[in-house]
Amino acid sequence: MCSNSNLNLSGKNLAMTTSSGIYVDRPPAASGTGGAHTLGNFNAIGAVTLTFSSANGYGLALGSTTATDNFTINNNATGMLTLASLTETNTAARTITLGGTGSDNHHPGFLDAGHRRHVLHEVRRQTP
Fold it and tell me: For 71-127, how does the pLDDT look when each residue is reduced to its tens digit (9 = 90+)?
């Protein structure tokens, strides 16, 4: 996703069934830094990994994020990754891993509507 200004696609929901990535930035000829793009709700179906990356300090905000199995989010961005909420819906115990080389992960709440045992595991890598 590239735009000269903050791009708001909050009405556009995403579903992911295989590991994939999202990249956000400005267009090559633009000069802005530190922008933020927004997408709607995000549904991770199956055991998948979402890799988020960006350039020029651009960040991404996702709406309500739902996982149906083990789920990994790798934030390798130069900007903030924000999840409105993070919910695990599987009836069995699952692990959600937050990692990557990015300096910011913002996840305001981990929700488990069925009161099942899940693990939220945050892995932080230090750059030398």
Answer: 998 888 888 888 888 888 887 878 888 888 876 555 555 444 444 444 455 554 444
Torsion of CA 34, 77, 80, 96, to 10 degrees: 170
Question: Which of 77, 72, 81 minimizes the C-alpha distance to 107?
Answer: 81
* Contact (CB, 8 A) for 21 and 51: yes
Q: Which two tokens stand for residue 24?
A: 């956000």
Angle at 53 between CA 48 and CA 54, to 5 degrees: 155
Q: Which domain holds residue 102?
A: 8-122
Whole-angstrom Cα distance, residue 117 to residue 115? 7
d(CA 90, CA 88): 6
Rounded CA-CA distance 104/83 in Å is 11
Residue 116 within a domain? yes
How many domains does the chain fold into? 1
